[in-house]
Amino acid sequence: MAADFLFVYGTLRAERDDALAKRLREEASLIGVGAMQGLLYRIDWYPGAVDSANEADLVYGDLYSLSPTSQLLKELDVYEGCGEDDPRPHEYRREKRSVRFGDRRFSAWVYLYNWSLDGKAVIPGGDFLADGDTEGAVR
C-alpha cells in the first residue's frame, strides 16, 4: 500500500497550535511548504480553498505524507465537516489535487471549500499564515 499525501493550508498548518494540527505533526511526515493552483478565501476565522483556472493563482500550505495505515483522513473528514455522518451539503469536500513542492509534483488530498463564496474575501497571496488574522477559536 502506497502512502497518501495531504495538503493543508489553514488551521492544520504545521505552525498552528490547534490540537489536530499537533496530532498531524506527530503522526504524519511533513514534507514541506508546497503550492496548489487555486484561490484562498477568508471564510470566517479560517480559510477555504477553491479551484481556479488561472495558473497564477496559488494556495500555499504544508504537504504531508501519511502512513498507509493511518486513520487520520477519516478523523480529518469529521473535523472538516465532511464525515459520513455530517449533513449535506458539506462545507468542505476532500479531493485529490496536484501540489507543487520544489520541482516535484504530488497528487495530494486537499479539503476544498464547498459552500457559497458570497461576501467572502480572497486572501491576497494565497497564504493563510501570512494573512495577519489567523487567530480565532479552535475549530
Describe the structure.
This protein is mainly β. It has 2 helices and 8 strands, in the order βαββββαβββ. The longest helix has 9 residues, at 19-27. It is 12% helix and 38% strand. The strands form 2 sheets. It has a 5-stranded antiparallel beta sheet with strand order 1-5-2-6-7, covered by helices on one side. A hairpin with a 2-residue loop joins strand 6 and strand 7 (104-113). The model has no long low-confidence stretch (mean pLDDT 92).
How many strands, what sense, and barrel or not for the largest sheet?
5 strands, antiparallel
- Per DSSP E runs of 2 or more residues, the count of β-strands stands at 8
Helix content bin: 10-25%
**Helix vs. strand class:** mainly beta
What overall form do the CA principal axes indicate? globular
Mean pLDDT: 92
Tell me the strand percentage band: 35-45%
Distance between the termini: 31 Å
Q: What is the number of helices?
A: 2
Order of helices and strands: EHEEEEHEEE
How many whole angstroms does the radius of gyration measure?
Answer: 14 Å
**Spans where pLDDT lies below 50 across 5 or more residues:** none
Strand order of the largest sheet: 1-5-2-6-7
How do the strands and helices of this protein lay out in sequence?
Blueprint: E1 4-8, H1 19-27, E2 29-37, E3 39-42, E4 47-50, E5 58-66, H2 72-79, E6 92-101, E7 104-113, E8 121-122
Antiparallel strand pairs: 1-5, 2-5, 2-6, 3-4, 3-8, 6-7
